[in-house]
Amino acid sequence: MKLLKGDNLELLKTLEDNSIDSIVTDPPYGLKFMNKKWDYSVPSKEFWEEVYRVLKPGGHVLSFGGTRTYHRMVVNLEDAGFEIRDCISWLYGSGFPKSMNIGKQVDRIQGNEREVVGERELQGTAIHEGNHRPEDMNTIPITKGTSPQEGQGTGLKPAQELICMARKPISEKTITDNVLKWGTGGINVDGCRIGSDIIKIRGGGREFKDGFNGGWKNNCGNVNVGRFPANIILDEEAAKVLDSQSGISKSSNILNSIRKGKSNFVSNHEREVSYRTNFGDKGGASRFFYVAKVSSKERNLGLGEGFEDGSFAREIKKVKNNHPTVKPINLLIYLVRLVTPKGGIVLDPYMGSGSTGIATLLEGFDFIGMELDEDYFKIASARIDKWEEYKTILK
Fold first, then answer.
1. Where are the domains of the chain?
2. DSSP code of 110?
3. Three-state SS for 236?
4. Which residue has the higher pLDDT, 218 or 62?
5. Does residue 127 have a pLDDT over 50?
6. Residues of the chain with pLDDT > 70: what percent?
7. 3-state SS, residue 196
8. Between vectors from CA 72 to CA 66 and to CA 75, what angle results, nearest 5°?
């Protein structure tokens, strides 16, 4: 493990070519979030070119981005030479609308009175985890006016962040050859399957006629535990909302659906599709997606009181994790596992408060983290120093 403080563009230049297995990072979104200088722009093409150089052929980048500026980050990645493989949507339920009430502003200008119709609790910031308000301010009044502009606003409720999945082109003729040489190129499908239900694949014990060569295949015992990982990830709140709207459902037999209104003849292709999708399980719709659960203790574990004399963390024992965009560690565990080969090195050039480092070490990989801000670097160092303790609090 290496934790490096300084300008990541300069620090990247100290790493060897083709030495990193994966990049999992949460860079600036270019939104001027809370007027933080570090969030004034997205990572440049020059930055991604250095990342490209140090990443092994076939190595993946998973990089978070904001919905308004994601396209700028992706263009820079692509211009640096990366292949854009997919876009993962992380859906969450706790975001609060950053929308100006136009009717309220009209009333303020015109001196109109507004009726108080209730109150609401203050929530966190639109970008996860932050909650910046006076300690004694827990609710604000809900008011309503009568102007023609009442009900108009300027923005939607944020409920997703995007994660660009990019890959450095392979150096060998095939993906298989590349994986054998570098260990990189593929993703860990079985290690990231969703849930623990037994899912039947193809016949799951039946025989069917192969439509390509006319032969018979026996697929007895061809099953997997859990569903194929999707490009949507939920937090607990989003999962609850989805399940409350979808209710409990049972996976259907598509072969029976195909036969309805038709003759008993079913093509080999239709039969195979049915065997692939006849799960026969039941539950809420969230069972189709990974749900990143958050522990209430994970933000500040490694900080606070109780450190032994002489430990690094003692320097900041009264400091809390004030980073405004902390991501759930379970989410990062899943992402690190998805794109990192066994024994690989994960690089996070925007380390922040160190959550990616904790996730990486919990998964048994090596970690290199880079951070420019001195306060965040100290927080990250203290949290990562206690990474083993996170085993006891994560769900």
1. 2-93+161-189+293-392, 96-158, 195-227+248-283
2. H
3. helix
4. 62
5. no
6. 69
7. strand
8. 130
